Amino acid sequence: MTIDMPDQPQRISKREFISRVASRGGWPARTVSSVYEDILKELLETVAHGQSVALTGFGRFYLQTHRGHKVHFGRSDVDDYSVLKFSASRIVNRQLQPKQDADGGTGIENLPANPESAADPKQAFASSA
């Protein structure tokens, strides 16, 4: 379920996301949920061990380390810490740019339902416009 909040983009829940993927691929939601959990576990474990995860045609996940600093208000300082970062590929960034099609669509909807089903895998996420 999505909640409309002014000044904030809409979000979908994990359940809705899994449901959409299951519908698109024709798989049981339970299977998609299991794969989703395994992918996230593997991604986080890999990045936690200092490696980046590059998904060709999608982007790169990596760990970014920040140095600790003094806090102006409060009693304690912030220690060094790391955060998970994501850098989208050029292909993905181009796909997210709204482009008007002849039918008035943005082109984002023209992504293949299953990128692997595209004739040329390198063109799987290329604009169909």
TrEMBL record:
InterPro entries tied to this protein: Hist_DNA-bd (IPR000119), IHF-like_DNA-bd_dom_sf (IPR010992)
Pfam families, sorted: Bac_DNA_binding
Region (Disordered): 95-129
Any GO molecular function: structural constituent of chromatin
Domain of life of the organism encoding this protein: Bacteria
Official protein name in the record: HU family DNA-binding protein
